[in-house]
From TrEMBL:
SUPFAM superfamilies, alphabetized: P-loop containing nucleoside triphosphate hydrolases
Listed InterPro entries: Helicase_ATP-bd, Helicase_C-like, P-loop_NTPase, SNF2-like_sf, SNF2/RAD54-like_C, SNF2_N
The keyword Phosphoprotein belongs to this UniProt entry's keyword annotation: no
Organism placement in taxonomy: Bacteria, Bacillati, Actinomycetota, Actinomycetes, Micrococcales
Descriptive protein name: Helicase
Residue ranges of domain Helicase C-terminal in the record: 510-678
Organism: Yaniella flava
Keywords: Hydrolase
One matching Pfam family: Helicase_C
């Protein structure tokens, strides 16, 4: 027996059919095979039925169904052709309906990106229209004029008024700078606003030149890591006279962006709006001119002028999008834009939709690794800035021109057209290597990076430490009676021992962001190995296991368990270029080895005194090193790690002031500062003990 029922839906119509397993079509073919051969159909195991959603474009759907023995009372003319409805700024949802997925995808071309969530294609206006006519056969829509208007607007190039030779010269400025060129740019485009950078921060000549290029035409900031992309982007939006800046960034660097904004841009608003008050709730921590959105916290109030920092992971939340709309930014910066490399991902779609609420020219993308494996990874960052459509016409045109699809459906570069793409990109971004920008520097360049991490394990460790202190002292009664002298004596005797769980938890919280840092550095330059320093053995082990599971790098470990023979063999392999990533103990590998094959170091953990850390860095920064040693210091915000960072940062600033060549010298230690941190935790244990004693007495 064969049954068919039409389920009417203007966007996703379907016909549900049921039949016995051995049923056959009129031509004798097994009916189940005939249904499977249709362009679009799904099996519902719960109801034991097939849902037919697409029959193709060559034959009327009623004829196709009747040919299989399925008869319905409804003529499907009005449900046959694809239909387009709006989906955010510049994009539309195209529902294939009975035309079927395959035929409609072929008509849309390389611009067809399927969304499982919406059961439709998400397609840019420029892939549906050339500004005058629809490009998809039989497309039905109530907003045809809107599609044409949006496509026409997106195809316009907004930068024709600027002298391309001047912009090219600005983008090409490297280490030496060109004061005459900068003066010419300042005369044409203006100076940084009063207050930019505060009293202590100043742009280097190449950063200033890049900022002019970005503010005017080149909306992609792609210099190597450590070249100051953040300050260049902030300088560019400052030159654009931005009043309300939105920054979209990965969650783990949100705090870092707040810090950078307060250093560079907030001093401008401190002069123009000095009476503006800090935000309510936790946003108050960011100061009067910056707000940030955080998971698990109330949404902040909004400043009249200033900046709003939003983690990219929250872009799809409706309340966050409403907050952004209320903020009404006049400029946007999308950080780590390579994270939007997959065009059809929900994150990428949300980023494009948000970016397109602002005109082209007011939105920037920042990344040190714009493309890793094929040109398609550049498409979404360029769509975010608006350069994709203005330069290449549409996503579909771009992909057709510069990529091909292998038999597995994977995008591959179309090599013959890559030189042409390179010529185009040189006019769309500022991108120089650190060697070009900073060739005169030797010694070490420090990049302190703040990461927002999960503090769940850290809070547990904090509770564990307090309970351990109470137990070691002798219980709540004895702890509650501790005097300031007792606390000081306990800190001197047991301090580091009882603090170890918090120290270790802070290190473990950075395993995931460390993987991101390592992968970014390796994408940027896989010819130079990395040295990853950590202290705790379980952090070293987890780093090794994670990298082994999730990457194909050649990895080795140099720690306290490494024998002398193994140590020599590992160093020799490293210097010969046979190791991509060396995970090293700060103390065990901090002396007696030469690792000059690498000029890139990442500190996932630090030791307490800068001299110990400096010794570790000196494994690469020694005779035989011909490059600037780039040191990335990872700091987990909201953990004990942050306190260590504050102490080390103060020390580094001090040494740099009195002896710039010393670079974290060993002349002084910070034991008193560390003792202050330890004392604070012991005092928290005393306070808890006193509360417990009070409860018992009640």
């Amino acid at each position: 027996m064969v049954e068919a029922q039409f389920i009417d839906d203007p966007l996703i119509p379907r016909v549900d059919v049921q039949f016995s397993f051995n049923a056959r079509a009129d031509n004798g073919k097994m009916l189940v095979d005939a249904v499977k051969a249709l362009p679009s159909r799904t099996w519902n195991p719960q109801n034991k039925m097939w849902s037919i959603t697409g029959t193709g474009t060559t034959k009327h759907p009623n004829d196709v169904l009747e040919g299989l023995g399925f008869f319905i009372d409804t003529e499907l003319d009005d449900r046959w052709h694809p239909v387009a409805v709006p989906h955010g700024a510049g994009a539309y949802r195209v529902y294939p309906r009975f035309a079927g997925y395959q035929d409609v995808a072929a008509d849309i071309g390389r611009g067809a990106a399927w969304s499982k969530a919406h059961q439709s294609f998400i397609v840019d206006a420029t892939d549906l229209s050339d500004g005058k006519r629809l490009l998809v056969r039989g497309l039905i829509t109530d907003v045809e004029d809107q599609i044409h208007d949006e496509a026409h607007h997106m195809l316009q190039h907004p930068f024709d008024d600027h002298d391309p030779d001047l912009i090219e010269d600005l983008a090409e400025v490297t280490s030496q700078g060109d004061q005459e060129l900068l003066d010419e740019a300042a005369e044409l485009f203006g100076h940084q606003r009063a207050g930019f950078g505060g009293e202590t921060h100043q742009l280097r000549p190449f950063q200033q030149a890049s900022a002019y290029a970005v503010a005017t035409t080149r909306k992609l900031v792609c210099h190597d890591m450590g070249a100051g992309k953040t300050c260049i982007a902030l300088a560019a939006v400052d030159l654009m006279d931005t009043q309300r800046l939105l920054v979209v960034c990965p969650p783990i660097v949100a705090t870092n962006w707040v810090s950078e904004i307060n250093q560079w841009l907030s001093p401008v608003f401190a002069l123009t709006h000095p009476d503006q008050q800090p935000g309510q709730f936790k946003s108050a921590e960011s100061g009067p001119w910056v707000r940030r959105v955080s998971t698990g916290r109330k949404l902040p109030d909004l400043p009249e002028v200033g900046s709003l920092v939003v983690p990219s992971s929250l872009l799809q939340r409706e309340d966050v999008r409403e907050l952004i709309a209320e903020f009404d930014p006049d400029a946007m910066i999308f950080d780590e834009a390579h994270e939007y490399a997959t065009w059809e991902s929900q994150r990428s779609i949300a980023a494009r939709e948000l970016a397109r609420t602002l005109p082209v020219g007011q939105r920037l993308a920042v990344t040190g690794t714009p493309s890793d494996s094929h040109p398609g990874e550049m498409a979404n960052p360029m769509a975010i800035t608006g350069q994709l459509e203005a330069r290449f016409g549409s996503y579909g045109n771009y992909m057709q021109r510069y990529t091909t699809v292998d038999h597995f459906g994977k995008h591959k570069p179309l090599k013959k057209n890559l030189p042409e793409l390179a010529d185009n990109l040189r006019e769309l971004w500022v991108k120089k290597t650190k060697a070009e920008l900073l060739p005169h520097l030797k010694g070490k360049d420090h990049d302190w990076r703040l990461f927002d991490v999960s503090t769940t394990e850290y809070r547990k460790a904090h509770v564990e430490v307090i309970d351990n202190i109470i137990e070691k002292v002798g219980g709540i009664d004895e702890t509650a009676k501790m005097s300031p002298g007792d606390i000081e004596e306990f800190a001197d005797t047991f301090g580091m021992g009882v603090m170890s769980p918090m120290f270790r938890a802070a290190g473990r919280s950075k395993i995931e962001p460390a993987l991101g840092v390592i992968e970014t550095l390796m994408r940027q330059d896989d010819s130079s190995p990395l040295i990853i320093f950590a202290h705790h053995q379980d952090v070293i082990n987890e780093l090794y296991d994670t990298l082994l599971d999730e990457t194909d790098y050649e990895i080795d470990v140099l720690d306290g368990a490494t024998s002398a023979d193994q140590r020599g063999a590992i160093v020799e392999d490293f210097q010969d270029g046979q190791i991509d990533v060396l995970i090293a103990s700060i103390k065990a590998a901090g002396v007696g080895v030469t690792l000059t094959r690498s000029h890139r170091i990442v500190f996932v953990e630090h030791w307490w005194t800068p001299g110990i850390n400096a010794q570790a860095m000196d494994r690469a920064d020694r005779i035989g090193q011909e490059k600037l040693v780039e040191v990335t210091h990872m700091v987990a915000v909201g953990t004990f790690d942050e306190q260590v960072h504050n102490v080390l940062a103060r020390k580094i600033d001090y040494v740099d002031t009195i002896d710039p060549d010393a670079d974290m010298g060993e002349s002084q230690t910070m034991e008193s500062s560390i003792n202050d941190i330890i004392t604070g935790v012991i005092e928290a244990a005393v306070a808890k003990a006193k509360r417990e004693v009070k409860k018992v007495k009640k």
